[in-house]
Specification:
The structure is a single chain. The protein is α+β, with helices and mostly antiparallel strands. Bound molecules: zinc ion.
Length: 186
């Protein structure tokens, strides 16, 4: 329909007007957003100036949409590398330094060699230096204890953590929906 449509992502909110996910931020490309509007699955809360035209219709591209039906978040967050980093706020649990994801590793608090398992309760985020230093020693053997005792987070906790990481792209019309509750805290 027109060039450059990829510059117009729509922020997708759940039926409670909160983003489906904060990190990564839930967005759809304009084609999916427009399709959902036509199927009446979403309501449009804000629009871009930009319009799309076809012989039979014209509309402004949606910049914020809300689902009509509420999608409950998964009760059990998936045990993935990404979610472990997010639980630990991308911060090494031994030296407390915050790093980009590619510089972070997994550490087994009780090493695998000593019977430790790969579970929420035994895996923490560690930087490369700390991971190497700890090696396959028990915490008490090297006096390295994770700052937060590892445990399984709830989906809500992960969502809440994700809010602390601003996305690369932030359209003016999204700000109210992303930050209305954090501004009240200050
Ligand atoms: Zn470290």
């Amino acid at each position: 329909m027109f060039e450059g449509g990829y510059n117009y992502p729509a922020l997708v909110l759940n039926a409670d007007f909160r983003p489906l996910s904060y990190f990564p931020l839930s967005t759809w490309n304009w084609q999916d957003a427009v399709k959902a509007v036509f199927l009446d699955r979403v309501s449009v809360l804000s629009e871009y100036e930009r319009e799309v035209h076809s012989p039979s219709f014209s509309m402004r591209l949606p910049s914020v949409i809300a689902l009509r039906d509420f999608i409950p978040s998964a009760r059990m967050p998936a045990f993935t590398r990404f979610n472990v980093f997010l639980r630990d706020c991308f911060t090494c649990q031994y030296c407390n330094s915050r790093r980009p994801a590619p510089e972070l590793t997994f550490d087994h608090v009780i090493p695998r060699a000593k019977g430790g398992r790969t579970t929420w309760e035994n895996v923490v985020t560690a930087c490369g230096v700390c991971n190497l230093r700890k090696g396959s020693k028990l915490p008490k053997e090297c006096h390295m204890f994770p700052r937060n005792a590892p445990r399984r987070p709830t989906s809500w906790e992960l969502q809440d953590r994700g809010r602390g990481f601003p996305p690369n792209f932030l359209h003016e019309s999204w700000r109210d929906f992303l930050y209305w509750d954090s501004e009240l805290e200050s």
